[in-house]
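Journal club prep, shared notes

We agreed each person brings one worked example of a sequence with its structure written out as tokens. Mine is N-acetyltransferase domain-containing protein. I'm keeping it raw so we can talk through how to read the token line rather than staring at a rendered picture. Sequence first:
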Amino acid sequence: MGYKELMIRSYDMQKDRARVEDLERRCEVGPTERAVLFTDTMGDPICRIRNSPMYKMLVAKLGDELVGVIQGSIKLVALHHNPHNDLAKLGYILGLRVAPSHRRKGIGLRLKDNEASVELFMNKLNYVKFLTPAILVNPVNYRTLPISSSIEVAKVQPEKAELLYRKFMTSTELFPDDIGNILTNKLSLGTWAAYPRGESWGDFGSDGKFPSNWAVLSVWNSGELFKLRLGKAPLPCLLYTKSSRLIGKMFPCFKLPTIPDFFQPFGFYFMYGVHHEGPSSGKLVRALCKFVHNMAKRNKDCKVVVTEVGGSDILRLHIPHWKSLSCPEDLWCIKALKNEEKIFDELTKTPPTTSLFVDPREV
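Then the structure, token by token:
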């Protein structure tokens, strides 16, 4: 196949929507040893980046056949290792897909999940390994989870939440400069803080006063943009899914954890901006996770709560999740563009910070 036959152009919703969705289905792959969750864009293939400040989607065609697609976005972020403490313009590549019958023909290179993607980006496009955050997924069951009476959970208004995040999270990797736009987006359900009951935190840090231990997180309703569905699952997982629901209905007094019905597309909440301070704040993070679970339980469409944390972040020890649904290493690769070599060297040669801010708009 010669490159002259290949046409790259912008995505056209009217012309390309059905064919892009078909390509996404044909490209679904995943490990056989654990359950695999796939996305269902509900007829809007560009929905995952639509809320980003700048975004673009390209398609590759051979004649009348659509053989590849790629999505990308650009935003300003704070980089912990930037020696000048300046903001960096960061581009994200999301959802590179090439039709199985047209792989290894250079289409992925032109468009600029699996071992093939790693081979493409690291060996052919000169990207290097940057971070390996963990994606943590926790099912939502029909029982309300109890929160200790010794813990206070309070809602934080967006302007207070922005001040809190800018004070404590700008030193994390990839903190977005437009955090205010994220917090006031219609998909952001709110920000909540947890602290010991009896301690005062009336102004949420605006006055410089903080409890001895505290935790904060925000919630994004990703299910309003796209759905998840269970694509593949090992036989033991399938059996447990069915049996747990049956036992839960027959013997509710046992209070056994049950798995929701994952075999139809379902929504999910994404927890972002998870942060904690204080030697005993881990239990406050767990309390907030219970709070979000109980909030998600009231949304019949929401079947899981998801978050993403740094691979070595102690947060993962305090966030409930199921290993069979989670991903312990989500490989992120990075490459310097023009005039950014110095920052790139700092990023790749210095050990990464343990904490990470994952923008819910790029989930």
